[in-house]
């Protein structure tokens, strides 16, 4: 499948990039803080980063006292509200997640990791489809922000299926790019 080949290529890029960059994660967190849509939001769905994803844990720690912060529960295609990062448990895929799920479907902002993005907002994930299915269940008013390293931006259009969900903004250590893939309202 074409997506598998593209995934493999971008995983190689990510590993090569991570070996040579120390400050990219800090820059990504700083750019997140700088977004008006983030500072004015009340509820944010974040993600607990895998080793190949930007480390946004400092950002999560920085907002947790002032905002409702949620993380995915990958096995149940649900989310859980968190009050700290220490009380998380390891889920089946080795991803840290909340202990319990929360009935909540209206987020102001959703942060979404990926293996790759193109500048149209198309996301290439790990192939499980969690975000594609989850995004269909939540309010379309939430601003979707794709988080990745700049080396994960594809200059070519990524393969896209009809069920693939797009993001509104792509944020890397180098850019904040509005995709215009969807119409969303700012807070």
UniProtKB/TrEMBL annotation:
Pfam (any one): 5-FTHF_cyc-lig
InterPro entries in the cross-refs: FTHF_cligase (IPR002698), FTHF_cligase-like_sf (IPR024185), NagB/RpiA_transferase-like (IPR037171)
Domain of life: Bacteria
Catalytic activities: (6S)-5-formyl-5,6,7,8-tetrahydrofolate + ATP = (6R)-5,10-methenyltetrahydrofolate + ADP + phosphate
GO biological process: folic acid-containing compound biosynthetic process; tetrahydrofolate interconversion
Residues binding ATP, per UniProt: 3-7, 123-131
UniProt KW DNA repair keyword: no
Binding site for substrate: 53
UniProt EC number: 6.3.3.2
Cofactor annotation: Mg(2+)
Sample GO molecular function, one term: 5-formyltetrahydrofolate cyclo-ligase activity
SUPFAM superfamilies: NagB/RpiA/CoA transferase-like
UniProt keyword list: ATP-binding, Ligase, Magnesium, Metal-binding, Nucleotide-binding
KW Iron-sulfur (keyword) present: no
PANTHER family: 5-FORMYLTETRAHYDROFOLATE CYCLO-LIGASE (PTHR23407:SF1), ATPASE INHIBITOR/5-FORMYLTETRAHYDROFOLATE CYCLO-LIGASE (PTHR23407)
Protein family according to the UniProt entry: Belongs to the 5-formyltetrahydrofolate cyclo-ligase family.
Protein name: 5-formyltetrahydrofolate cyclo-ligase
Native species: candidate division WS6 bacterium OLB21
Organism placement in taxonomy: Bacteria, Candidatus Dojkabacteria
């Amino acid at each position: 499948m074409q997506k598998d080949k593209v995934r493999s290529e971008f995983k190689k890029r990510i590993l090569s990039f991570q070996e040579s960059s120390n400050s990219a994660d800090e820059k990504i967190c700083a750019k997140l803080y700088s977004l008006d849509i983030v500072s004015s939001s009340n509820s944010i769905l974040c993600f607990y980063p895998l080793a190949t994803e930007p480390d946004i844990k400092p950002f999560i720690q920085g907002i947790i006292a002032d905002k409702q912060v949620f993380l995915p529960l990958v096995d149940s295609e649900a989310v859980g509200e968190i009050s700290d990062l220490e009380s998380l448990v390891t889920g089946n895929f080795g991803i840290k997640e909340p202990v319990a799920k929360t009935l909540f479907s209206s987020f102001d902002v959703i942060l979404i990791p990926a293996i790759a993005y193109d500048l149209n907002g198309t996301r290439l994930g790990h192939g499980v489809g969690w975000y594609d299915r989850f995004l269909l269940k939540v309010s379309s008013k939430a601003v979707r922000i794709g988080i990745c390293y700049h080396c994960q931006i594809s200059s070519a259009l990524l393969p896209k299926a009809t069920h693939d969900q797009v993001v509104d903004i792509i944020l890397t250590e180098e850019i904040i790019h509005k995709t215009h893939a969807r119409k969303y309202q700012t807070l």
